């Protein structure tokens, strides 16, 4: 066979090219992009101009067909995949759509693969309790008044979102999100499945907190609560965006009805942010730049070895309401 089929438009929609694999990256976070399109032609291996495969093209969705509709022209090799935005957001996580395309002529066939990586914020749709009622975290705006456990509602001072790519997750599995099943800590806590970063801390009201630490309530990193039943690492997420909500002080807010911490700009958390994000925070809170301005935590924070005293007894845990 003396030809390859190739996507010749430059992978419209933000994709990258290859010999047999064509990757399109679509970010639904606040974007209006819902269609990925392209055009396959037959390209001679030895060089020369592109032309159509004389016996046409066949396209087949082999993965993720529930997240959109495929249209294609069997003669010209043009295709469009229309992303079902509602289905994507309802899935609660990033998805990968795979399409097989085969071109045919008298010399034989050539098959390529189209990969569409659709990124949403894993926390997208997560409801945060505000004075105006529950609001999806991606719709929070600066100044919005968020209900807190320790007093009146507090205005949002800063919102950040950090993307962790599939490559980063593969290189460092410790970055993978933790999924907390609905009702894991009692009725309505959380009200729906909740996905957080492994370091995101959950407020735990547990008899062991008083016994071991002399505190009625403690903050525990989500990774320290994993029981592989109702709280588990999400190994399926191909990529993740972590939202950060910051107030003037460290607060406990209701996330899907579950008390969790707001962003705490301590040394570790700041180091984990991108340089431009740190610069933005330092402009808002100049005291953080010198390393002395991090607020006190709203509750005692357990260290990794201390969480082991609470872990393994998830059926007895209760969360403060």
Describe what you observe in this structure.
- The chain is built from six helices and 23 strands.
- The longest helix has 10 residues, at 275-284.
- With 321 residues, the protein is mainly beta.
- Residues 12-16 and 312-321 have low confidence and may be disordered.
Descriptive keywords:
321 residues, mainly beta, four-stranded antiparallel beta sheet, 6 helices, 23 strands, elongated
Mean pLDDT: 80
Give the helix tally.
6
**Count of individual beta strands:** 23
Share in helix = 10-25%
Per-chain topology:
Elements: E1 3-7, E2 15-16, E3 21-27, E4 35-44, E5 57-63, E6 68-72, E7 78-83, H1 85-91, E8 95-105, E9 108-119, E10 127-130, E11 133-136, E12 145-148, E13 151-155, E14 158-164, H2 166-171, E15 178-180, E16 194-196, E17 201-205, H3 207-213, E18 217-221, E19 231-233, E20 240-246, E21 252-255, E22 258-261, H4 267-271, H5 275-284, E23 300-301, H6 304-307
Give a nutshell description of this structure:
Helices cover 12% and strands 39% of the residues.
